[in-house]
Amino acid sequence: MGEPSADAVLATALDPPRAYGPPAAEAIARSAAADFMVEEDLGFAPAGSGAHLLLKVRKTDANTAWVARQLARAAGCPPRDVGYAGLKDRRAVALQWFSVPRPRNALDWLAVRGEGFEVLEAHPHTRKLPRGALAGNLFTVRLRGASGERLAASLAPRIAVIAARGVPNYFGPQRFGRDGGNLTRPAEAVAGLPPVERSLVLSAARSVVFNAVLAERVTAGSWEHLEAGDLAALDGRGSFFAVEAPDELLRARCARLEIHPTGPMWGAGQPESGAAVQGLEARVAAQFPVQCELCVAAGMAQERRSLRLRVVGLSCETERDAAVLRFRLARGSFATAVLRELVVAPETPD
Asked: Of 12, 3, 38, 337, which is closest to residue 170 (Cα–Cα)?
């Protein structure tokens, strides 16, 4: 058999293989925005003084960037001066933090609300909230079925496996836009895009290469094991170290989810991995020449991301017609990576 076509490689990256076989059950997800709730955990407290305000906002069925523009209007500042740690799903209820410069005139922020959002808290802070400034996200996901008890019973064995072993740390489909639209922009047009759109295109380019590498390692069964040449990441931290040859100590730490193998977030040069791992990563990246060139042209450096995602506090409660999942994920990871290992969950149309 020959090499897979470019379309087949892309399709695999957008709908990658599952680690634990077919989903354990079928359910309905997001029949309403309240079925998917996420709360940001900043990991730090507001400073209590400073030239900015941290705003805790509840948004429902609303786009993060749109809410940011409404907050800018209330604060009397340009939208670029509003900070937020990351984008949150539109079809959801999200408790999300934003920052704005403190207005010259006093404003009752707890009265600021609009279609799909309301400000719950306002605290003085020293600086604008930068992207990625999160410890993690807490999720509450309601999966609906004919019987909540039967659905929960079907999910219980898979939940136990995921709690013990984690899931592949895939980027979710929202990273790539509707029907992968963020991957179809002509390369020559990307430089001229508005900054927000350009950032989305570049993020999608990096993410599709990572997903494709992870998909190969899931197929090979090596996504949760250290290989010679891997770069191992410490769980929940940005640091990593080279693995020349995994010994029993490293294997034991990996089995306890203390460390994880990593994959490439593409940029200039070659990945810092070695041996066969680097060969796999370079071979997969070569199947995405346009996306890799975009990352290099944008001045991005080679970085790493954990191939495995630890799912903290995963539990399941039952309602009459639903199973309610609760779990915590590190920043930058996707709840869809957990849900796709559990259920086939067609979403109800908007």
From this structure: 337
